[in-house]
TrEMBL record, chains A, B:
Sequence ranges assigned to domain Aminoacyl-transfer RNA synthetases class-II family profile in this UniProt record: 55-341
Organism annotation: Mesorhizobium denitrificans
Lineage, uppermost ranks: Bacteria, Pseudomonadati, Pseudomonadota, Alphaproteobacteria, Hyphomicrobiales
Predominant localisation class: cytoplasm
Record-given protein name: Proline--tRNA ligase
Protein keywords: Aminoacyl-tRNA synthetase, ATP-binding, Cytoplasm, Ligase, Nucleotide-binding, Protein biosynthesis
Amino acid sequence: MRLSRYFLPILKENPREAEIVSHRLMLRAGMIRQQGQGSFTMLPIGKRVMDKVCQIIREEQNRAGALEILMPTIQSAELWRESGRYDDYGKEMLRIKDRQDRELLYGPTNEEMVTEIFRSYVKSYKDLPLNLYHIQWKFRDEVRPRFGVMRGREFLMKDAYSFDLNYEGAKAAYNRMFVAYLRTFTRMGLKAIPMRADTGPIGGDLSHEFIILAETGESQVFCDREFLDLEVPGASTDFGNDAQIAHIVKEWTTPYAATDEMHDEAAWDKIPADDRLSARGIEVGHIFHFGEKYSKPMGAKVQGPDGKEHNVSMGSYGIGPTRLIAAIIEASHDDAGIIWPESVAPFDIALINMKVGDHECDSICERLYDAFQAAGKDVLYDDTDQRAGGKFATADLIGLPWQVIVGPRGAAAGEVEIKNRRTGERETVSLAVALERFGAAE
Amino acid sequence: MRLSRYFLPILKENPREAEIVSHRLMLRAGMIRQQGQGSFTMLPIGKRVMDKVCQIIREEQNRAGALEILMPTIQSAELWRESGRYDDYGKEMLRIKDRQDRELLYGPTNEEMVTEIFRSYVKSYKDLPLNLYHIQWKFRDEVRPRFGVMRGREFLMKDAYSFDLNYEGAKAAYNRMFVAYLRTFTRMGLKAIPMRADTGPIGGDLSHEFIILAETGESQVFCDREFLDLEVPGASTDFGNDAQIAHIVKEWTTPYAATDEMHDEAAWDKIPADDRLSARGIEVGHIFHFGEKYSKPMGAKVQGPDGKEHNVSMGSYGIGPTRLIAAIIEASHDDAGIIWPESVAPFDIALINMKVGDHECDSICERLYDAFQAAGKDVLYDDTDQRAGGKFATADLIGLPWQVIVGPRGAAAGEVEIKNRRTGERETVSLAVALERFGAAE
């Protein structure tokens, strides 16, 4: 993408309304624009990050056997009366009336709707296990939305729902999502620690939050340092092997870890002082097992191998991709701006032409631009007439993993500079080396 | 994907509520489930088609220079008061109040919001042309939603918005979208005919609908048969060349074409009788030039080369991907079910194991399944214990372009059958030929 034809509205000043660094950087880097209380447009560069985040989530959901669907945002109140949650949910639910005065609502979550889908089609244990997920906008009318996309009212959520014959099956489904979450966050360059959690309005008796550690975290968390060394399961993990998956979950739930609400001082005191890690954390995922909470009132039953009808045992599993973008920035930035992990960077390479109009600079840039793209790299080519200092500042701010800098002196000598955004290391190399570095043919 | 682990809730009976063939087939093929009046879940196979349709739209928007963003579904009433449309829009607009009694609405379209984004950042003609699009859910509270996703209340829409200094620039932007639309529909196997149209509540003075011909179409259309032979511009079309793009538009707007509302009997009578094509049509896209209709009241101005401020000249460009899925089915089906064009098929190949449990059948199927997938094909492998007749009926109903059928007699001889869903042609071939046919290595 040529920056001259792109829409990247960089802000020079720190926006006053932004209280936390991710909100500030997302506004400054032209990723988002606020449209209302807790409501944001993803601008082009923000949309690119969102797509990459969603794609990783999707790949790991699919790998774990979940199937993607897409449910509507608007739901009928009737459905929520079946589960008994319509009156319980309170003012966070955005309630709507249509032109015929029917009561609707903007879905804050989808347990009821997906249970309705399930009961309409699935009648036998032979069709289980089943896990359906979607990535869809949700609305929760928070009293005080803030911190940008970290706590919005309209936000994107990946929510998966598992259906099993009994607790044993449901626990295996829970475990698969647990492991999928470990993999998902790791692929985004995050260290996420699963912590026992309260189940809140979703209900149920087993729940983990996945928390990443960041100084600006919203809540106090406590865990054993052992977590920092645990190995995250690889891509070859066999999600069909319940015992192997259960083993991984055991490993990741044995050391002490708790959010503030679940914290147990007695257990904490037993950990050697050097191993105690008390820090701020950001919730990036939340999984629940709630058994028959929805299947029973809503009549979602299957026939078991015993010929009898059983209420299915369910769980739900959420990740907020928009919030996750902010969390990644909280965990990975410096004074100059964002530092994207390669897997979610909006572009791989910032190609910086220091002197547009200089014949050598222009021709080398054009050549690199074509070659890098042909090698499958996403390149943002700064071909604008801004001065070099401004270009460097922009590249640092938007945080692409690599900068390839083409200036008149180097160009005359057939050389360019490569800068690693994370380490700050700079290296002057020949054109041939620059091409090779990014897998491009000469 | 193994069908035994997939969620494909086929209906054996024709659902009574479905009045048109696409609605009937989408329900029967397990693509959608109705969740409320004019509101549908895309089930796994429907979601796959939707993704492919959206990806083609996206590629052609990008090719034409549009940039993808994502605006929220909920908008503030305040914004719509600025343009004067809040009171005009009528009961089709879903109006909402939040917990603080602020007036919100579920966006039926996004002219106001995108104009607000534009005016916040863009100040100079040097940043033009600009075209921003998103693919997002819309809600229009139709009195009588019907025909499945063809006329829903909550529906997906790709809406693009162009901003230019003056009419000349805006017309060039309009032309680029015009040509992008021709390419988009062609890639989905559709013949779309652009027709001068009424501008309705969007406003403006220049507008085309893109109509595909289908017996079950919602409206009467009239055009010159010449359209059927016009060549659609190729992938190498230079969208940077305004003159070339204008030439293509001229070619596609010169022969007579009109919807019922715009029909001109006098002009029609001048066409030789043999060339007159009077048919039913389905609108699949709609583009508008409306100049300063929103930029003027909302103060979206840029400084021109003359140093003066100019209200930008705008257009908007819509395609409904969910409706488009139904339109493709209306245009491509037979008595047995859907016939997907390859570009939007949910899977490329239905691999049918006629006798699960037979050693030869199972091992050949496993081998083909792995090899086809390694060759980049999406394969739906019917490994269920249903009888062969049911498997054939399902494969025909869901309409994948190719069926590869493995039965015990053929398997013993190292042969499989390949069926083309569109032509019905069947061919018995060796395993080696079957592999080669789909680009797979032995």
